[in-house]
Design a protein that fits this description.
Layout lengths: L1 E6 L13 H7 L2 H6 L5 E6 L17 H20 L3 E6 L5 H15 L3 E6 L20 H5 L5 H4 L13 E6 L4 H10 L2 E4 H16 L8 E7 L21 H14 L2 E7 L10 H13 L15
Parallel strand pairs: 1-2, 1-3, 3-8, 4-5, 4-7, 5-6, 7-8
Helix pairs in contact: 1-10, 3-4, 8-9, 9-10
């Protein structure tokens, strides 16, 4: 049972347009595509929050109050669906929304005693802070906030600080990290599989490592930033970084996640239709999410899913 939750905001981003992402995914047929796989899909519509005032940074943050408001309402919506034992699928919106979504997942896991594994599919580590950020854009800070480094109103959303321990996170596809972030990521000890690692050992080995040691009751959360993908196949992102995963690498990533049977929540973020070509990126994202929820070319035997 899946619930689609639209969060149409670009308040944490440096460029406008990600607020149109939820509708682009709907136009691409995401809901019916998942229904065709046999899921009970409920589209809960869009959440509401403050408009993007498009102001400069204030004490290191842009639009902090608005980002807090959006993440609080998303936290509440995601947590409510988890309590109903449904799989929340957040349709973003920019990646600052990962704070509210994953805080809700962390709260749920704490209350149910489930271990949590987070796969952060992204070109960026998103571990900037108030002191390091070159822009003040909070879509570059969600992982830091989840790990306890950020404004109190964001770091405490889950009811505990930190909401997430760094060793619960696996970052995949990374290829753009600010100098200060490099030091913070290293100090935090987050496992990062950057594009060099993917080039050296391949996506299969990366995913085997990222998915290792999952227990039968692990809650697996995927935070899918569309700029994870190479911009040649997914142009509709404001923070485009060349050299990302190819179509086949991305499909393998999604299919291996599906093979675990542990996927329990999902964010799709940073899709900016204003930069797309005939909704190409939204349609690709929809196709990849289908793979994430089990669509495959063949009926595969469990013993051969990794072989």
């Amino acid at each position: 049972m899946l619930t689609l939750i639209g969060a149409p905001t670009d308040i944490g981003a440096g460029s406008r347009g990600a607020s149109m992402g939820p509708e682009a995914l709907r136009v691409a047929g995401l809901g019916p595509a998942l229904q065709a796989l046999g899921y009970d899909v409920h589209d809960a519509g869009n959440l509401t929050g403050p408009a993007n005032p498009d102001l400069p940074p204030d004490q290191g943050y842009r639009h902090l109050d608005g980002v807090i408001a959006w993440n609080q309402v998303l936290h509440d919506a995601v947590y409510a669906e988890l309590q109903r034992e449904r799989v929340p699928v957040t349709l973003g919106g920019d990646h600052c929304l990962g704070i509210g979504s994953i805080s809700a997942v962390a709260r749920h896991c704490h209350h149910t005693g489930k271990p949590l594994r987070i796969l952060w599919l992204d070109a960026h580590t998103d571990f900037n802070t108030q002191d390091l950020t070159p822009s003040g854009n909070l879509h570059g800070m969600p992982v830091a906030c989840l790990c306890g480094q950020g404004p109190d109103a964001l770091t405490t959303l889950a009811g505990e600080v930190p909401a997430v321990h760094p060793d619960w996170i696996r970052q995949i596809g990374i290829r753009s990290v600010d100098d200060g972030e490099k030091r913070l990521i290293a100090a935090a000890g987050i496992e990062v599989y950057d594009m060099r690692t993917i080039d050296e050992i391949g996506m299969r080995s990366v995913m085997e490592a990222a998915l290792a040691d999952l227990t039968p009751n692990t809650h697996l959360h995927v935070s899918f930033d569309v700029d994870f993908l190479d911009p040649e196949i997914a142009p509709a992102v404001a923070t485009s970084i060349p050299g990302g995963p190819t179509y086949r690498e991305a499909q393998l990533c999604m299919e291996m996640i599906a093979d675990t049977g542990r996927l329990a929540s999902l964010d799709i973020v940073e899709l900016n239709p204003a930069l797309d070509i005939r909704n190409k990126t939204a349609m690709l994202a929809t196709e990849l999410v289908q793979s994430l929820f089990g669509k495959s070319t063949l009926i595969r035997r469990p013993s051969r899913s990794r072989g």
